[in-house]
Each structure stands twice: as structure tokens, then as C-alpha cells.
Amino acid sequence: MSTSTSTPAPMGSGAEFSEGRRWLQLAVGVVCMVATANIQYAWTLFVPEIQETFGWERASIQIAFTIFVLVQTWLAPIEGYFIDKLGPRMMVAFGALMIGTAWVINSQAMSLPGFYLGAAVGGVGVGCIYATCINNALKWFPDRRGLAVGLTAGGYGAGSAATILPIAAMIDSSGFQETFFFFGLLQGGLAFIAAWFLRAPAAGEVKVSGKVSQSRRDYTLKEALNTRLFWLMLLMFTCVVTGGMMAVAQLGVIAVDLGVKEFEVNLYFFTMAALPLALMLDRVMNGISRPLFGWVSDHIGREKTMVIAFSLEGTGIIALGYFGHNPWAFLILSGVVFLAWGEVYSLFSALAGDAFGTKHIGKIYGVLYTAKGIGALFVPIGNVLMEATGTWSTVLYTVAGMDLFAAFLALAVLPKVLNAHVAKSTLAPATPVIEGKAGTASAHA
Fold first, then answer.
1. Quick one: average pLDDT of 5-11?
2. Ramachandran angles phi, psi of 14, nearest 5°
3. How many CA atoms lie within 13 A of 164 on its CB side?
4. DSSP state of 343
5. Could you write out the DSSP letters of every residue in 244-274?
6. Percent composition of the chain: helix, strand, coil (DSSP 3-state, to 5)
7. How far is the C-alpha of 303 from the C-alpha of 289, rounded, in Å?
8. Is the Cβ–Cβ distance between 375 and 242 less than 8 Å?
9. 4: burial class by Cβ within 10 Å (0-12, 13-18, 19+)?
10. CA-CA distance, 97 to 89, in Å (whole number)?
């Protein structure tokens, strides 16, 4: 974007700028995200066990995942309001209680409605923590928005990497009910403790860099909804997030149907089943992608970064459908898909802040983030499509087409619309942006 940067908060108007202090806040936010991640990313480990225990259809079980994502995403605008009102500590502490409760509910559920209730409670908890931590990162790092949001979102994307093996091992040894209960208390407790170290910056405690292009004015939600740029971003977000949501929820099921779940991968120094190894690798790649692509976008622009990432994901999904029966190809290509997918949560939040300012970004990005909920609707539809065609390739090729369509939009349409939006915003009187309590910023990833 070629618009003027925001006016820095005057030094001396509040607490003084401290590089170490804001990195500490970022680290605490990452810890909270790590403790939250498994409620989404470890779900695929539980689905086969739930199906085997109760005999329910996969599509019926996966409705719980859809409910979780819908609650998490569609409450985003409301969460943005309460973040501004209550502050980060209370929101994250409340979210921690909710995610712990959700896992406990799942541990006791004996019916599908029980799992659906756990999913809804978990969606509220994850939404509160996710929104608040991204919010705090944007406020503490107005000069490194892509990187800060990427690192925070990376904690959610890679947070489950270290616990995939323990969760899988405990499911095998103690059953999925005990695993739900133990890890619910562990992760909810960790997030609850970390919550009390969070706070928003005071006026003058952060600085704005002239290297980062930011909007000269703050758009209200109504104004943002009246722009072509917002709806283009929503369309692109929905297209790209669908493929990733499908992979997150269905990877374990896809591995079973492709016949690679039990394949033993010999890496010389250790041997591991293909599915747990793929899940661990995918979490790491997902976590790396968010700060990596966020950092890249700070240097080459959001649009060019989107073209690269979306094209890579679409190509990777096509290759997964074609070569996925090979266990080694399954491992590598699933990693490529997660590497190219995770960045959407850093790129779209950063672009929203660039285009619409940060004062009302909680509400604006909250509505934009509902794209994830729209994408989640395709998760059970994917099961139906697979059963109708008898192959996952049909599903994978469909979502790959959506990714490549989004890449085309990022290449041919987004730059023109974005430039027109920036030009129009510079004609309006500039609204000074004071980063700190007065300049709130909220987003999800």
C-alpha cells in the first residue's frame, strides 16, 4: 500500500517504549495460543476412536467440528466488543475456563449432542483467547504487524506439535475419554495462569515505524462493509480457508481411506506411524508459515505473498489427491498444504489493519473472520461428496480449484481494488491513530 503511515503516539504521554516489554507480552500471548491449539488440531485423532466406540457415522461426528468453528468464528464481532471493554486478562482467563470445560464435557459425553455441546463451549473459549492474543499483538507491534500476528497465530498453528504424540499415546493406552479429561485440565490451567500476565499498552508505550504502510484513517464497520475491498477479501479468505479446514478435520480419515495410516516410517533414528508423524510435521509447518509469510508480506506486500502462498497450496492439494496413496508423498504433501495454508491468518488480519485502520478492527476483522465458519460448512459436505464419488480426489481437486481461483484474484484483481481503496482513503481527512488503549485492534487467526 502506498499510503502515509499513522501518527506515532507521542513519547512521554504515558509509559515509555520498551522493546523487551512488548516482546514479553508477545511471548505470553504465544503461550496462551499453544495451550489452546489442540481443541482444533488434535480433534482428528479422536474421531476414529469415537466412531469405533459408538458406531456413529463420520459425517455426524464431524458436525461437532463444524459447530466448534462456527461458534468460534461467528462470535468474533461480539468478542471484539468485549476485548475493548474488559481487557486481555479477563477475556483470556474466561476463555481458558471454557476450553478446559469443553474437554471435560467431551470426556463425559455419551451422545452426539454431548459432543456438540462440548464443541460449542470450546468454540467460545478458543474464540476469546485467539481474538485477544492477536488483538494484543497488533497493539504492541504496529511497526511489525505481519511478523507479530504471524508469530502469535503460529503458536496456535504449531502449538499442538509437541503434544500430538502424547495425546495419541494416551488414547491408545487409556482411551479417548481419559485423554480428553487430562489434557483439558492441563491446557486450560496453563492458559488461565498465563492470562494474568497480559495487558494492553499504554499511550506512548509503542511506536509506529515509517517502514510499514498503514491507513491514514480508521474505517468504521459500516464504512468497511461498503467497500469492494472488504467483500473481495471475504471471498478470497473463504476460498483459501476451505481447503485448510478440510485437511485439519479430515487428515486422519483421509489417511485411513488412502491406506497409509498404519504405515511405519523408518527415519533411521526412530520409527513412527505415518499419520502421527504427518500430524506433527503439519503442525510445525503450519506454525512456521504464519510468521514466515507475515514477515515476507511486510517486505514484498500482502498481494504478492498471497499469490505465492495460494498457488502453492492449490498445487499441493492436487498433488496430495494424485500421489497420496504413497506414504512418503502423503507426509511431504500434507506438510506443503499446511505450510501454504496457515499464512491466511496473518495475511488477512494484517491487510485488514493496513486497509481499514486499527480503531475498529475488532469488529471489521471479526466479520471478515467468519470466512472460516463458512469454510467449515464444507467439512461434512466433504464426507458426503467422498462417499458419493468413492474417492477423496474429487474433494481435494475441488478445494484446490478454490485455492487457485483465490491466487488469480490476488494477482489480477486485488492490486487494482486495493490501490483504488488507498487512493480514495487519502482523499478523506486523516484520522490520527494513537497506538495504545485508544487505538484498539482485534483480529483472529
1. 38
2. -160, -145
3. 25
4. T
5. HHHHHHHHHHHHHHHT-TTPEEE-SS-EEEH
6. 75, 0, 25
7. 16
8. yes
9. middle
10. 12
Residue type, 194: A
d(CA 217, CA 232): 20
Q: Is 390 left (phi over 0), alpha (psi -120 to 50) or beta?
A: left
All three cell numbers of 204: 506512548
* Gyration radius of the chain's alpha carbons: 21
Cα 181 versus chain centre, distance: 24
CA angle 375/377/379 to nearest 5° reads 85
Question: Which amino acid makes up residue 41?
Answer: Y
Residues 344-367 pLDDT 10s: 888 998 888 888 877 777 788 888
Written as one letter, the residue type at 222 is: K
**Alpha-helix runs per DSSP H in 301-391:** 302-323, 327-341, 344-356, 361-368, 370-376, 378-389
- What pLDDT, in 10s, does the model give residues 223-282? 999 999 999 999 999 999 887 777 666 677 777 777 776 676 666 666 667 777 777 777
